[in-house]
Design goal:
Layout: H1 3-6, E1 31-33, E2 39-41, E3 44-46, E4 55-57, H2 60-67, E5 72-77, H3 79-102, E6 108-113, E7 117-122, H4 125-139, E8 142-148, E9 153-159
Parallel strand pairs: 1-4, 5-9
Antiparallel strand pairs: 1-2, 2-3, 5-7, 6-7, 8-9
């Protein structure tokens, strides 16, 4: 068999879509999330009240939360954290409140204290990065972020000694 004519049969097929939690298409409008009550209307998720006739689904953010599959990981490191944890957490919660108000799919999933850092997980990549940038802006320190999975996930590390 002439391989040049038929091509290689052992090549990998590249997926076009890597994020299973991204919308595959548009839901019928209006659609309301059965978990958080966010409404898909005019092509985006909002916090508007849903009409009685709205279709139902579980939104991508609630789906991520149920599966415990965060898109954003924010590590807060350094001795500054130990002395200013409450202050830092207030800033983080305020950023989440503002972001979540405008973008219902951007939420904090969990905050956990690890051995040498605090880990904040988020449903979207933008919230993790915005929190890291707010920490850098407010408290200086070092900020680093790395995208993964074809930019469908992010690791943000903020540290200050």
């Amino acid at each position: 068999m002439d391989k040049s004519r038929y091509g290689r049969r052992d090549r990998l097929i590249q997926e076009k879509r890597h994020d299973a939690y991204q919308d595959l298409g548009k839901w019928p409008e209006p659609t309301v999330c059965t978990e958080c009550r966010a409404l898909f209307h005019d092509g985006r998720w909002t916090w508007e009240a849903a009409p009685e006739y709205a279709h139902t689904t579980v939104c991508p953010a609630c789906h991520r939360i149920a599966d415990n599959y965060p898109a954003g990981h924010l590590e807060i490191r350094g001795t500054f954290l130990r002395d200013h944890r409450d202050e830092l957490m207030n800033l983080i919660r305020n950023i989440e409140k503002r972001e979540k108000g405008e973008h219902p799919m951007e939420r904090i999933m969990a905050v956990s204290d690890e051995k040498d850092h605090t880990l904040v997980t988020t449903t979207g990549i933008h919230l993790g990065r915005r929190i890291g940038e707010a920490l850098k802006h407010s408290y200086q320190g070092e900020l680093d972020f790395t995208y993964g999975d074809a930019e469908n996930s992010i690791l943000v590390v903020w540290s200050r000694q």
